[in-house]
Design goal:
The complex is a heterodimer of chains A (398) and B (470). Chain A folds into 2 domains: 355 residues, Thiamin diphosphate (ThDP)-binding fold, Pyr/PP domains (Rossmann fold), CATH 3.40.50; 36 residues, no CATH class. Chain A is 41% helix and 9% strand. Chain A is built from 14 helices and 9 strands. In chain A, strands 3-4-5-9-8 form a 5-stranded parallel beta sheet, with helices on both faces. Among the domains of chain B are: 78 residues, OB fold (Dihydrolipoamide Acetyltransferase, E2P) (Beta Barrel); 34 residues, Dihydrolipoamide Transferase; 205 residues, Chloramphenicol acetyltransferase-like domain (Chloramphenicol Acetyltransferase, 2-Layer Sandwich), CATH 3.30.559.10. Chain B is built from 10 helices and 19 strands. Chain B: Belongs to the 2-oxoacid dehydrogenase family.
Chain lengths: 398, 470
């Protein structure tokens, strides 16, 4: 196992603590399986260094043994594409085509590495920033836009995609994932649920309740925390005195602290956690240490609270750049291929733009359509009142 | 080449305006799709705005440092015609981009987090329909809707705001509000202080009545109830009822005002022991010739009045201002003030001086009956010469009656009371009555009035005295 300090500029990661935080693993002991190895606090698991060096790790390597250069190139392409889509979405918002967008710039590896580790029959319960995870689940470019353009309450069919409608409520989806995972056990299937949430969400009651239930019922759920260092404008160090991964053992859940900007390490960690889930060994907590390089949302101005030096330091640890360097070194990323990847990304961005601007606003009254399977009298009354209100305007309030 | 305009977008979940801080491009520059063209500062953030078109900048609509309403055009770009429609969606209606042919920006879509957000300022608000087809009308009580075709006067429209571009303001919707706009706690406060919210002018947003407004109304009332709110009045009856001034009341008021402020009134009082008259009434009641006729104290007072008038004719006269004459009547058209459901009426008995007691009694009975039934012919209401008002039936003793216009005297008779009274050098329980006489001092002097009053009093105190006066 490689242990490297992830950042000297993050106060949170500068902490040194000799406690053997990752050791205890009562759930694993009870289940008679082996959990993650003890590690030193603040250390993160890493397979690809920022300058593109592949570092061996005895624990993680087996989980990504099948990821050859070709497959790594595919992950690289994924990351290039989702970054391009993210940039396009920000532009669309600035051009008045989207109401809001939560950019994922800097978090591509955490989302692609974990999303690509999932099976079709696994189920994702995400927060609002996991557009790249949605991409790995096969959500179309247009569907990705619907909610943010305000033309739909949900962008896709959760059952066919294997991903729930993103939760705007912070941390609520961890409970949904835990319940879903408990259901998988009852169904006797080896599918798993994965909950995506941020560092800020770990302070929410919902997340802690979910951890308790998941541990108690050994639910096949992965708590995938993208620690992007910011809860909007609040640095993670203000609400976590110790690494977030250290909390899970207190609930009886083994945890992994992984370099969230290392797509390979993230994939290895997620596969390991998925394996535990499928074997009936219960939940795993993964802290993917990464960095949100953009604003919280397009309504946010991070220049008011972000130190430019910290920003630069994280740009040096760019998740795409390191894979690019690694592939270039191994000769698997030619100029020709790089151009092809960019073209594909541009084409998808254009497709997304077309899909976005082509979305028509739904009739106002459609807001009542899917509240209940059969409308209540109150809902019917509200609908008629709203219809009367809209009738006050020329053109029906549009 | 086609010129496309780009309107200031809502950059932050419901903003209505943003400041254009600086341009990154100039007229004539080639811009790529998504190339940064400007820096814009919103209430939330300083952001870079990328171009939604590729082409040549043909116009910059605003100077740096200008605050721009969301939806107003900021830049025009000449794009190649082969720029695929739908590439940027600008050919679609209602996507927030403005075609140059459109007269005014129409940012119909105001995207916020989800759905449609803060209304755009100024003329781009959705226009309301005429209010008769509106929500308010359709939510009135059903009976009101049924009457909507009746020619009821239209409610006054609120003053139109020209800045509003003709779109009625929010308050315009409720030109006939069901009740004043306020909040439940404020309503409770007003109720506790007995303040009718309809009389309070609201200073809150959109004229909402605030707590301060109610307290100000309480202070302005200044009735000392501020400190200790009175017990809430039983809500069985409305606190006040407004009735249009019409009909009898309007006529009465006009008559009283005309009388009170043209004829200088003076009033005299005389309290009389009318025990003999009361005894006379008992005697008359037992006599066959008066059977079936209602001889009352009023009848006898009326009879005494006609006799006294003969001796004091100035009381039965009229000040004719226009002619500059005093008209003295050779007849008595005796007015009888009657309280009727419609109000006070003073019909009169014509030529009362010629009527014997029975006829007079019948005439008065008929007069009041007709008045209470509302059947008094108009002729009976004009042309009276002197009047009697019987306030005694209401249990009061005396008052200052106001003259029926055009008459010089009015006699008020109070209630007959059993009172300790001097009688033959001793104190005895006697039937006592007070007479109040108001007279027009232009026509009548105190001497004549007093003579008249004492004549009436003498006949009531001793009916036999009548023999000395006829």
């Amino acid at each position: 196992m490689l242990r490297s300090e992830i950042s000297r500029t993050s106060a949170h990661d500068d902490r040194t603590d000799d406690a053997q935080a990752g050791e205890l693993d009562p759930a694993d002991r009870r289940a008679g399986v082996t959990g993650p190895h003890p590690r030193t606090p603040g250390a993160v698991l890493q397979l690809i260094t920022p300058d593109g060096a592949r570092r061996p790790d005895a624990d993680l390597d087996p989980w990504v043994a099948d990821v050859d250069d070709e497959r790594l190139a595919a992950l690289y392409e994924d990351m290039v594409v989702v970054r391009r889509l993210d940039i396009e979405a920000v532009a669309l918002q600035r051009q008045g085509q989207l109401g809001l967008w939560p950019p994922l710039l800097g978090q591509e590896a955490a989302q692609i590495g974990s999303g690509r580790a999932l099976r079709r029959d696994d189920f994702v319960f995400s927060s609002y920033r996991e557009s790249a995870v949605a991409y790995t689940r096969g959500v179309t470019m247009t569907d990705l836009m619907r909610v943010w353009r305000g033309t739909a309450q949900a962008g896709w069919d959760p059952r066919s995609i294997g991903m729930a409608t993103p939760s705007i409520v912070i941390g609520a989806q961890t409970l949904h994932a835990t319940g879903y995972a408990m259901g998988c056990v009852m169904d006797g299937v080896d599918s798993a649920a994965i909950a995506y949430f941020g560092d800020g969400a770990t302070s929410q009651g919902d997340v802690n309740e979910a951890l308790v239930f998941a541990a108690s019922f050994a639910a096949p759920v992965i708590f995938f925390c993208q620690n992007n260092q910011w809860a909007i404008s609040e640095p993670v160090g203000l609400q976590a005195m110790r690494p977030l991964a250290d909390r899970a053992p207190g609930f009886g859940i083994p945890s992994l602290r992984v370099d969230g900007n290392d797509v390979l390490a993230v994939m290895a960690a997620t596969r390991q956690a998925l394996d535990r889930a499928r074997r009936g060994a219960g939940p795993t907590f993964i802290e993917a240490v990464t960095y949100r390089r953009g604003p919280h949302t397009t309504s946010d101005d991070p220049s008011r609270y972000v130190d430019p030096a910290v920003q630069q330091a994280w740009e040096a640890k760019d998740p795409i750049l390191r894979v690019e360097r690694l592939l270039e070194r191994s000769g698997h990323l030619t100029e020709e291929r790089a151009t092809a990847v960019r073209s594909r990304a541009d084409a998808l961005a254009a497709e997304m733009r077309r899909g976005c601007t082509g979305l028509d606003a739904p009739p106002p009254l459609s807001v009542f359509d899917h509240v209940y399977t059969s409308p209540t009298t109150w809902l019917v009354r509200q609908r008629s009142q709203y219809a009367a209100y809209l009738a006050m305007f020329e053109g029906g309030g549009r | 080449m086609t010129v496309k305009e780009f309107a200031m977008p809502d950059l932050g979940e419901g903003l209505t305006e943003s400041e254009l801080v600086s341009w990154s491009v100039a007229v004539g520059d080639w811009v790529e799709l998504n190339q940064v063209i400007a820096e814009v500062e919103t209430a939330k953030a300083l952001v870079q705005v990328p171009s939604p078109f590729a082409g040549v900048v043909s116009r910059l609509f605003v100077e740096p440092g200008t605050t721009v309403l969301v939806g107003a055009p900021i830049i025009a770009v000449e794009v190649a015609d082969d720029e695929a429609p739908g590439q940027d969606g600008s050919d679609r209606p209602g996507d927030g981009q403005v075609s140059p042919t459109r007269a005014e920006p129409a940012p119909e879509r105001n995207a916020v987090l989800v759905g449609y957000g803060a209304p755009v300022e100024s003329a781009s608000r959705p226009r309301r329909r005429a209010r008769d087809s509106g929500w308010v009308a359709s939510h009135r009580a059903l009976p009101a809707q049924g009457r909507s075709t009746a020619p009821t006067p239209a409610p006054p429209s609120p003053p139109a705001s020209t800045a509003d571009g003709g779109a009625p303001s929010r308050t315009g919707v409720g030109t006939t509000p069901v009740r004043p706009r306020s909040y439940p706690p404020v309503r409770k406060l007003a109720h506790e202080h007995g303040i009718n919210l309809a009389t309070v002018t609201g200073t809150g947003p959109d004229g909402v009545i605030t707590r301060e407004d109610v307290l100000a109304a309480v202070a302005a009332r200044g009735d000392g109830t501020t400190a200790t709110p009175p017990e809430p009045a039983p809500r069985t009856a409305p606190r006040e009822v407004r009735t249009p001034i019409t009909g009898v009341r309007k006529h009465t008021a006009a008559a009283m005002v005309a009388s009170a402020f043209t004829a200088p009134h003076a009033t005299e009082f005389l309290t009389v022991d009318v025990t003999p008259t009361v005894e006379l009434l008992e005697t008359l009641a037992g006599q066959r010739r008066f059977e079936g006729h209602r001889i009352t104290l009023l009848t006898l007072v009326a009879k005494a009045l006609t006799i006294a008038v003969r001796r004091n004719p100035t009381l039965n006269s009229r000040w004719d201002e226009a002619a500059g004459e005093i008209v003295q009547h050779g007849y008595v058209n005796l007015g009888i003030a009657a309280a009727t459901p419609r109000g006070l009426l003073v019909p009169h008995v014509k030529d009362a001086q010629d009527l014997d007691l029975v006829t007079l009694a019948d005439a008065i009975g008929h007069l009041t009956q007709e008045a209470r039934a509302g059947r008094t012919p108009p002729a009976d209401l004009v042309g009276g010469t002197i009047s009697i008002t019987n306030i005694g039936v209401f249990g009061v003793d005396a008052g200052t009656p106001i003259l029926n216009p055009g008459e010089a005297a009015i006699l008020a008779m109070g209630a007959v009371r059993r009172q300790p009274w001097e009688h033959r050098g001793e104190v005895a329980l006697r039937s006592v009555l007070t007479l109040s006489l108001s007279f027009d001092h232009r026509v009548v002097d105190g001497e004549q009035a007093s003579r008249f009053l004492t004549d009436v009093g003498a006949m009531l105190a001793e009916p036999g005295m009548t023999l000395t006066m006829v």
